Amino acid sequence: MTGMTPQLARAAWGSLETLHVVGFFAPEVQEAYDRFGVPATRAGYFAARVAPFGKVDPAVVVATFYVFSPALVRRAVPAVWAAAPPEAWAEARAEGVSLRLHRELGEPDVAEAVELAREVCAGLSAAGRPLFAAWRGVVWPTDPLMQLWHAGLLVREHRGGGHVAALMAAGLDPVEALVTGGLASDSLEFVRTTRGWTDEEWTAGVQRCRARGLVDDDGLTAAGTALRQEVEAATDALAVEGWGHLGEERTRRLVELVAPLRERILDSGVLPGWIRSRG
Fold this sequence. Notes:
Elements: H1 6-20, H2 22-25, H3 27-34, H4 43-49, H5 58-65, H6 70-76, H7 79-83, H8 86-105, H9 111-122, H10 130-136, H11 144-169, H12 174-185, H13 188-194, H14 199-211, E1 215-216, E2 219-220, H15 222-238, H16 241-246, H17 248-268, H18 274-277
Antiparallel strand pairs: 1-2
Helix pairs in contact: 1-11, 1-17, 3-8, 4-8, 5-6, 9-11, 9-17, 10-11, 11-15, 12-13, 12-14
């Protein structure tokens, strides 16, 4: 892992992440979910992400995703399983993502990037990261561009397991994590309106943050900023192993290869503006 830093690993994650999160924002993905006829908010999001778990109980989804309201999850699960099997939801997401990525990027030569990204994924350990572990057992796509997207999926879910651990170690409950994280990343309105918490639950979470000295009328306090920096540093440290497995030189090469694809996605308008600023 000589020369590998959490900062370089974070930059490399950000490169793949930009491609991967198209699956959360592209209208083509929601259109693919709509054919199953489940009206619950974010039903497809939950179903597609936990698909490798099988037809799990809502409690498993609540525990895995951490920052989502349990009530929001329960409105979607198990209704999604009654509408279609888990693998159909995952296939719908991949179908929508493929349509959008190819629409924006065409047929780029990603063979070298895929080779490097798959090597990163081979260096990731599953301990304490159940969602990553489940997705690691799924067959890779055959389309090269979707292989790069799938690598981003694996890296994201691996990193996400470490991020939840970092939030818990910092003593941030789900709403506190959203309030402080939203302020830190300029995504407060997005997380406020998409994670399903009631106005009363959100207000109570803000008050807990105030009582801890993490936020005030101006936003994050110095203490709040420091705590979020600690959370991100811990997350970065827990996510470095795959990039260490790849090595510094080849990690930089992957960033270089993905950079033009990343910029085209960021410039396309399919993603919210705050994603560009988070690194």
